[in-house]
Amino acid sequence: GQYAFYAGCNRNTRSQDAVTRIVVHWTGGTGGAERVVRTLQKNALSIHYVVEPSGRIVQTATHDTRCAHAGIANDGSIGIEVVSRGYPTRAEDEYDVYTIGGRRVRCLRWPAEQMHAVVWLVEALCGELGVPRVVPGENGEVSLSRRGGPSGWVKLDGVIGHLHVHTSKDDPGGAIFHELRQEGFALGDV
Per-residue b/e over 18-31, b at no fewer than 16 CB within 10 Å? Predict the structure, then answer.
């Protein structure tokens, strides 16, 4: 995909120290990075990266900026927004079903270009920033549980989802964790 820097999402930010985790989100809507930035700015939120369905990656804040994207997980994290409605709403939508927090949740499949770009970005960030190549898991499977409550994620340095931080969230679904596991990311307990 393409890569761009758009320094337009820096409200509610401050400097941060070492980065130990990456938090992946979905936007819950459509539109490009510029629309995501406008929406975040209206809500005094911010993010480091946006990945569009085409695979275009847009950086909106530097790595030493603490962005407001995941509540108490903002400190020491890099946030990635994946442009996706998240849930299927049309008969032709392709989706997978995951168990999240004990519920069966239908999650839209991301286009191949977008999934490739997200995996590439996570790999690059782990390499550049020294973030451990670890995803949540238990019993040899990628976990989408919230075992240990909403703060169980604090034990895991690596790649987590918004769903691991906030029990009201389902994003980014499970596909990205399965893809990262296929790329050799280890399982870490949350």
Answer: ebbbbbbbbbeeee
Do 131 and 19 meet the contact criterion of CB atoms below 8 Å apart?
A: yes
The amino acid occupying position 128 is E
Cα angle: 160, vertex 127, 146; to 5 degrees? 10
The per-residue pLDDT for range 141-168, each reduced to its tens digit, is 566 765 555 556 666 899 999 998 888 8
Quick one: how many helices (H) and strands (E) in the chain?
A: 4, 13
Adjacency order of strands within the sheet including 3-5: 3-5, 57-59, 49-51, 77-82, 21-26, 159-161
| Whether the Cβ atoms of residue 135 and residue 158 lie closer than 8 Å to each other | yes
- What are the pLDDT digits (tens) for 2-47? 545 455 555 555 667 789 999 999 999 999 998 998 888 888 888 9
| Whole-number Å distance between alpha carbons of 85 and 110 | 10
Distances (CA, A) of 151 to 18, 146, 164, 165: 20, 9, 8, 7
